[in-house]
Design a protein that fits this description.
There is one protein chain. The chain is mainly alpha-helical. It has one domain. It has 2 helices and no strands. 0% of the residues are buried.
Length: 94
């Protein structure tokens, strides 16, 4: 069996929850018009939730990318200093 990432599993779970909610609403004792309005409202709320979570994930990814760039810059600086110290050590030996 193929392995699925966590995001795929969460996506399947949310899709199942949404389908279950939709089926429950379709069989609800409310009138058709009320049910359609409720479905539309819940769909809009779901869209807003997914959009906000998407923005949060993008912000987190940008923060992680920035931290990664900072770490790379620090390591580059350390390597440059180490190479310079190595060159000085070689020069002082000869």
């Amino acid at each position: 069996m193929a392995r699925c990432s966590l995001s795929v599993k969460v996506g399947y779970f949310l899709a199942g929850v949404g389908m279950g909610a939709l089926v429950a609403l379709l069989f609800a004792p409310e009138s058709g018009e009320k049910t359609r309005k409720l479905i539309a409202r819940k769909a809009e709320e779901g869209k807003d939730y997914v959009a906000s979570k998407g923005r949060e994930f993008i912000e987190q990814a940008e923060e992680l990318a920035q931290k990664g760039r900072e770490v790379v810059a620090k390591q580059k600086e350390r390597l440059t200093e180490t190479l310079a110290a190595g060159k000085e050590a070689v020069k002082s030996t000869f």
